[in-house]
Write a sequence for this structure.
């Protein structure tokens, strides 16, 4: 039975330290973004930080997806 994408990600979280580190950093960025969005007023520093966090979060996600794609390629897994 082919592995589904959530199963691959879970397996990588459990077995791949780099994937886990990226996922943790991605989650940390999300928490920081939520804190910024909870503010009643955003100053220019908040707006810059928001932009930096969004770019970092996207970069981290791209790296994670690259690891997933490499896993799929190495294990002959098709995306479902």
């Amino acid at each position: 039975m082919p592995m589904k994408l959530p199963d691959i990600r879970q397996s990588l979280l459990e077995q791949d330290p780099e994937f886990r580190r990226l996922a943790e950093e991605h989650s940390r960025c999300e928490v920081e973004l939520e804190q910024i969005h909870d503010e009643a007023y955003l100053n220019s520093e908040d707006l810059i930080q928001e932009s930096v966090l969004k770019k970092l979060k996207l970069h981290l996600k791209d790296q994670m997806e690259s690891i997933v794609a490499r896993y799929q390629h190495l294990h002959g897994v098709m995306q479902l």
